[in-house]
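Q: For a teaching handout, I want to show students what a protein-ligand complex looks like in token form. Below are the inputs, and the small molecule is glyceraldehyde-3-phosphate. Please produce the holo structure.
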Amino acid sequence: MIFAANFKMHHTRQSTTEYLDRLEALLERAEYPFKVMVFPPATALQPSREWITVGAQNAYPAEEGAYTGEIGLSQLHEFEIDTVLIGHSERRQILGEDQEFIAKKFAFYREHGFQIIYCVGEPLEVREQGFEAVAEYLWEQFDDIDIDYERLIVAYEPVWAIGTGQAAEPEAIAATHAELRRRIKRPILYGGSVNPTNIARIAEIPDVDGVLVGSASLDPEKFHALMIPVAPPQV
Ligand SMILES: O=C[C@H](O)COP(=O)(O)O
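A: Here is the structure, written as tokens, with glyceraldehyde-3-phosphate included.
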């Protein structure tokens, strides 16, 4: 089971360091059998901890160059970062990244051996058209993506469930993950309003190999609390 925290544009460098210190202490005490990842903003990037992989929320597909406002491979290497999120719906929709650009990022960071969390998810208007439309939409988001890449982790995040407090119903998650599982042999995470109330139910869905968490991950105690129902600490 993978627990990934996406801070989005929350936390500073200092608060990220404090967060990682605290989370590390909590994980160390409980010795959870989980893979734990944290994606802070670019200004707060720092090396991974023993039990926590620190990854980048975004990176430009180049080592360095004239790309104002971006960070690339050199900046990630400075902090020994080799994990990156690609294709998040906020970058697709708000920042205007199209599939061609996203695939270019994927190919570049794949070439450099990064672990990639690749995000897909349909907007509400597609969900309302029915499951076939959802499946078609999601598979189009894999255009030019190497789904057999050994360091790929897929995150399914229905756009309408992100930040709304309303996670997808377990049946909808199960059906969508089963559809993705037909071709994706790598771990598949669910994301979208995961919280302490729904985590147990979500974690037991077949083909859910972990969760990508936004708002419920911002506090280390709360993020850690998500893990407890999935694997209660041994006493
Ligand atoms: O990357 C994380 C997701 O966008 C989920 O965000 P959320 O947990 O705040 O809904």
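A: Two things your students might notice: Residues 13-30 form the longest helix (18 residues). Residues 6, 88, 157, 162-163, 191-194, 212-216 surround glyceraldehyde-3-phosphate (CB under 6 Å).
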